[in-house]
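Good morning C.,

I know you're traveling, so I'll keep this short. The sequence:
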Amino acid sequence: MGRKEISQVGQQAGWVATYVIQEVWKCVVGWEGVYEVSDQGRVRSLDRVVSAPSRWGHLVQQRRRGRIMSGHAKSHGYVRVALQHEGAATYAYVHALVLQAFRGARPEGHETRHLNGLRSDNRLLNLDYGTHRDNQMDRVKHGTSNRGERHGLAKLTESAVRAIRGDTAPARDLALRYGCSPSLINNVRRGSSWGHVV
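The C-alpha cells, ready to paste straight into the viewer:
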C-alpha cells in the first residue's frame, strides 16, 4: 500500500498520517570538518573558527556558524555550491558531492545520471553512476534528448526520413528535394543516421 492509499485509509479511520524523512548527513570528500552533504541533496557548512585579517592587518580568529548552503543552478540546470576554507575555494556540483559521499568515487568511464531527468533533483535516490550510453538512454526515456528534429542543426524531419526510406529515386535527386547532401540520404536509407525513426 502506497502513501496515498495509507493516507486515504487514515482519513476514513479518523487519524492523520505524518511522514518523517530522516535526512542522513556525511562529510564532503576533501572538505571533512568543513562541509557536509545529505542524502536529500543539501549541503551545509559546519561551525568552525577561521583566521581573517582585521582592519589593522593582523589575523584574528573568527567563529563562523554553520548553515545550509544555497545552491545556484547554472543555465544547464545543474546546481552548484561555492566551497571555501583557509584560502582554498572552488565550485562543486551538488550531484557529484552527494554521490561521492554516499556511493564513493566515480568509476572510470562513468558519469552521473539523474534518474528522473530533473537536473536540479539531487536526492540520492535520484542519482546513480552509469556509462555515457546509460545517460543518453535516460535522456531519450525522459524526452530531453536533442536527437532528430529536436537537434538545432537537423536538416530533415521524421516524416521526411520515412518518405526517403520509401522512395527509390536517386540520392542526388532526393538531396536536392530535401535540401541536404546525397551522403545524408544514403545514411538515412542505411539507418546509420536517424536510426531511431522506424
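Safe travels,
E.
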